[in-house]
C-alpha cells in the first residue's frame, strides 16, 4: 500500500495487528475514524487504554472484574458452594447468558495442551484446589470444551481433587438441540447412548 | 451479553461502533488486547488518537497528508499539469499502486448522489475548477467508479470545465483483464465495442 501520510500508515499498522484484521480492513476502519469527530476518536482510544490499565482479575475466580472481587463472586445470592470450572471469560459469559446457573465460577485461563506448551502450572489450578479444600464447597462442575485438551484437564484436576469430600461433575455431552443423529460424529453418538437419561428429564415442566 | 466488568463492556461497545465489527468480533478484539502488554495497548490508543488530531488534508488535492501539501503534490518530479480526479483517498492508493501515473490528484470526497443527499456543494468541486483555471493545467482525467453517480459527477463537472482550454478525459471502461466476454454485462460489452482501440495498444512493448 502507498500511503501519502505516515500518521495514516501507523494507524493502519496498529489496527492490522489485531487478530483477523488484515491491511484492507484496517484501512477501512481508519478511514471511518477519519470521518468521526476527534473527540469521539479520543474517547475510543481512552476507553481501550483505561480498560487495559484498570481491569482486574477476580482474586477468587480469575474472571475479569472492575474490583478485587468480581460481580458474581461478590453477589450474596449466588451459591458459593458451587464452582463451575471454565476455560475462559467467554465461557462465563456463555453460561451466564443461559440464566440457569446461580453458583460461582473458576476461570482456568486455558486448558492443558502440551503441544502448545501449556502445562498445569500456567493455569489457575492451584487456586481451584485451595477453594475446593474449603469446607463450604459441595460441588465442582467442569464446563470445558469437549476435546482432548479439555478431557486431559478434567482428568488431571479431578485427580488432584480426589482426596477432598467434594462432588465432581461435568456438563453432559450429546446431540445438540436441533441437531440430527445422521450427521453426529460417532464419538458423540456413542457417548450419548452410553449416558442415556430417564425420559422424565425431557418432559417440559 | 453479560459482562462482569464495566470497563470490558465499554471497550466492547467502542469497538462495535466500527463498521463491520459486531459484538462478538468486538469481544474477541478486546480479549486479545487484554492479553497484550499495557504499554502496547497505550501505543495503539495513542497512535489512533494522534492520527485523528494531527492528520491534515492537502490544501491542493484534499488527499490525506502529514503536512499542508501532500507528498504527491509536493514532489517536483510529478507533473502538476495533469490532474486525476478520484472519489476517495482509497482510489489514490489504488492508482499509486499501479506505478503508471506521475501526475497529481484531486480527491472529490465522494460523488454526486441526490438519493444519499450528496450534492455538488458537499464535494471538492470548486477547488478543482480553480486548479483547472490555472494556465499550467493541460489535462484532467476522471477516474471515478463506473456507475450512475460517477457518470453524473463527470457530466456535472465537465460542464463547469467546458469554458476552459483544458483537455478532459476519463479512464477507459471495458472487459477487465482476465475477465470473460461471456459473463460481462451488456452495458460493459457494448461500450467496449464502441470504444474499440487500435491493436497496437495491446502489443506489449
Helical percent range of chain A? Answer: 40-55%
**Widest sheet: strand ordering of chain A:** 4-3-5-6
CATH class assignment of the domain at 76-171 in chain A: Alpha Beta
Shape of chain A: globular
Give the largest interface pair and sizes: A-B, 58 and 58 residues
Q: Count every helix of chain A, treating DSSP H or I runs of 4 or more residues as helices.
A: 8
CATH topology of the domain at 76-171 in chain A: Dna Topoisomerase Vi A Subunit, Chain: A, domain 2
What quaternary form is this?
A: homodimer
What is the percentage of strand-forming residues of chain A? 5-15%
H/E series of chain A, N to C? HHHEEHEHEHEHEH
Question: Could you name the ranges of chain A where pLDDT drops below 50 across 5 or more consecutive residues?
Answer: none
**CA-CA gap between termini of chain A:** 61 Å
Number of extended strands of chain A: 6
Q: Supply the helix-strand structural class of chain A.
A: alpha/beta
Domain Toprim (chains A, B): 81-176
Pfam family, one (chains A, B): RecR_C
Protein name (chains A, B): Recombination protein RecR
Function (chains A, B): May play a role in DNA repair. It seems to be involved in an RecBC-independent recombinational process of DNA repair. It may act with RecF and RecO.
